[in-house]
Amino acid sequence: MNAYAEFTLRLNQATSVAALESHTIADEAAQEAVGFLGKTVDLFSRFFFNFRTQLGGIFSNFKRSELRMYHESNPMRVSDIREKIGRLSFNTFRVAIPDGMRVTYLDAISTLNRLYDEAYIMLTLREMAAVADELKRMSFSEPSKEDIARITHATAEISRLVKSDVESSLQRCFTDSRTPEVSAHQAFAAPHDVLKADSQILAFELAFKVTIRVVAQAAALEKAYGRIVDVITQAKGADMTIVKALEEYLRQAALQLDLYGAIIHEMLRVEHNFVLVMKRLEEVEPTKKLRYDHPGPIGPG
Fold this sequence. Notes:
Radius of gyration: 26 Å
Oligomer: single chain
Largest sheet: 2 strands, antiparallel
Strand content: under 5%
Distance between the termini: 75 Å
């Protein structure tokens, strides 16, 4: 089960348990609201923690990508690969791929770039910050129709950004199988696709730099929503309508961040294995001779 499906399952279980347990409490309406939201937010906080731990650990001291470091450390080897790439027989050697990748490098890169462009992660974070600011002034015991409509609208906006095809697109590119190497001609449809993949994976660096900001903003949002939940928990008679609206909003926001994390994770795997491809190409000797056009006779004709 991937991260997206696992998170959705755990979130559904948590909210179902919360709704069931809430009916055993004396002050049913108010306590149901607190319990319903409390279970969800506890899971949401743990998700934030995992998001920050997994991506924050990788990007805490990020300066340049792995492929960029390879280029800067091995300029002559990169130049040699570029010079000989058209003279290599790609059906005679094997190269590394991310476990489970069942498409070519260029196909995987194209899919990841599209999914990243459609993630709109900075827009999601800005929206979450705006909603957090508005929640601070809302009354949770007597919310206005406008307040409930605001959260409902924000939920619809995030739901629109959570692309339904992200999971299926990733599954088309990556499976759970463990296949660390394939023949080079399976990974690249043509030898010069290596050079195309090289330049496109170098461009992943921009997404990685954005992720540094994403992790920092996610940490700030975690604290902001934690304080809001404390206010709701301490409120007398929290209204179930606004609590359920907020619960659904948090669910969609978490799914959006989870999908973004999955995309970045696959980008990192593709980049790391492509660096291994480059190191393998250093060792492969050309099997085809250079072709020159005959210059013709020298001297007066």
